[in-house]
Amino acid sequence: MAYPVDAGQATTSVGTSATPWTVNLPGSIVAGDLLVLFSRQATLVLHGSNSGWVTKVDNASDASDDVTSFAFKIATGTEGATMSWNQGSACKGAAIVWRVTGAYPYDPLFVSRLPDWAAVNVGVGANPDPGNVVVTGTGGAQDCLFIEIAGLDGETQTFTASTNYTNIQNANSGTAGVATTNVCIGGATRQLTAASEDPGAMTAAAPSTGWCAFTIAIHPAPPSVPPNFDPVPFMRR
User: Fold this and answer.
1) pTM, to two decimals
2) How many Å apart are CA 111 and CA 75, to the nearest integer?
3) Which burial class, exposed, middle or buried, applies to 198 when counting CB atoms under 10 A from its CB (0-12, 13-18, 19+)?
4) What is the DSSP letter of 235?
């Protein structure tokens, strides 16, 4: 099987409290691409309902009481350059969206091939540590794309990726107000044949009063499924 590919990224800074957010999307999206969204809300706000997106993490357990979210969807090809991202109430924050090609298609017939994700690790300090993710399904090691992500409170800190991770992306909510009302997020990717992956700690440029971090595993498409397979017509047969 071929590895899923980190084919593009887009970052968004939300420096003024708002809902919905206008979130930037990567370019060149086509039907069947997997879109992975990571966001951090700068207050105790879970995100709202967003059509077409499957939410897998919406977490508020770190010491800063900021909320870290992870969601994904299969692109329709009509997304455009931005999207509207609803929050439970107005808040500041930041978001990163990845465009992944060659991922296993998501629909009810393929539920065992949803992206896998590690339990959310929480802590304080400057080294958020994404946890070990186990790749589900049969056959042992798979040719996966792994994404490590971390979010913390603060203003303009940047993250350095773990060893072997590349395409690091950083976003923040700006510097308005006091530092504790702002957030920083970062994420990077790695192609690896493995049955599990523990990236090791990322490094932030400054310590925090609270961080969340975890790892995502994206399964490769089977040989019989084109890399940009659109599941909707398939489901209607």
Assistant:
1) 0.88
2) 17
3) middle
4) H
User: Among residues 185, 139, 143, 146, which one has the least CA distance to residue 23?
Assistant: 185
State the Cα torsion 87-88-92-96 to the nearest 10°. -30
Confirm whether 231 is domain-assigned.
Answer: no
Domain that holds residue 209: 5-223
Q: Answer yes or no: is pLDDT of 233 > 80.
A: no
Rounded CA-CA distance 76/13 in Å is: 25
* For the ranges 13-27, 37-51, 128-142, the one whose mean pLDDT is highest: 13-27
**Residue whose token pair is 């971090």:** 213
Is 237 part of a structural domain of the chain? no
- The predicted-structure confidence for 15-45, as pLDDT tens digits, reads as follows 999 999 999 999 999 999 999 999 988 887 7
